């Protein structure tokens, strides 16, 4: 895998802080939004790897980063917005073959749609390479937030639970209108065992948000996600759970406000 820097990123005068991000075959380069405030000590910066959902791309989330930076929120944070690969079957960008959730579970196990575990694992490997780039720049894992919307949220949760490199080590995980994939049975536990991870997870803070009118992620899937995270050892104190009455499968201003407050807590400003 090669690498590429973002030549369009704005660099403070006299402060070359170029980050080299991985280049993946068949995938557009990530959008990189450099921190607007330079930190003399690299480890005092922060990064948010923010993953888009099904059918979207990195530019679809760029406005969120712009809002934070224009309002001087977490100015020491670098934003990395990766791109999914065009799924020829789904005819849209995806991180893995999508699954359709119904409000009620299938009557028989054989009727349940099979999840794309292979596609998910390949995506987790790509996300690990983005985290590697941040670490190589001097950011410790506990100054890196990983999160996303919908499929991006699913990949973020799965990375935290199954990454041999970074499972349980990041500053926090953000799940916006998402769910935990491979939650049935012991699939996640088996993946953790293969990676040499302990049976249960550590106390990585998680920001979990869902719109109560979200028809793509039914309430039973949301509730199953919270239960599975608890079963994996994540205590309620580590889960910052938000449900929004009038929100569907989208991001709203109240969501971003709550997210900002949470991020300021998990990656606070550090004095040089």
UniProtKB/TrEMBL annotation:
Q: Where is the Phospholipase/carboxylesterase/thioesterase domain?
A: 36-264
Organism's domain of life? Eukaryota
GO BP annotations of the record are: fatty acid metabolic process
What the entry lists under Pfam families is as follows: Abhydrolase_2
Care to name a GO molecular-function term for this sequence? carboxylic ester hydrolase activity
Please name the top-level EC class of this enzyme.
hydrolase
GO CC terms, sorted: cytoplasm
SUPFAM superfamilies, alphabetically?
alpha/beta-Hydrolases
The question of whether Disulfide bond is a record keyword is answered with no
Keywords linked to the UniProt accession: Fatty acid metabolism, Hydrolase, Lipid metabolism, Serine esterase
Supply the InterPro entries for this chain: AB_hydrolase_fold (IPR029058), LYPA1-2/EST-like (IPR050565), PLipase/COase/thioEstase (IPR003140)
EC number(s) per entry: 3.1.2.22
Catalytic activity reads: S-hexadecanoyl-L-cysteinyl-[protein] + H2O = L-cysteinyl-[protein] + hexadecanoate + H(+)
Q: Where is this region: Disordered?
A: 1-27
Function, as annotated: Hydrolyzes fatty acids from S-acylated cysteine residues in proteins with a strong preference for palmitoylated G-alpha proteins over other acyl substrates. Mediates the deacylation of G-alpha proteins such as GPA1 in vivo, but has weak or no activity toward palmitoylated Ras proteins. Has weak lysophospholipase activity in vitro; however such activity may not exist in vivo.
The entry assigns this protein to a family as follows: Belongs to the AB hydrolase superfamily. AB hydrolase 2 family.
Protein name, entry field: Acyl-protein thioesterase 1
What species was this sequence derived from? Answer: Hortaea werneckii
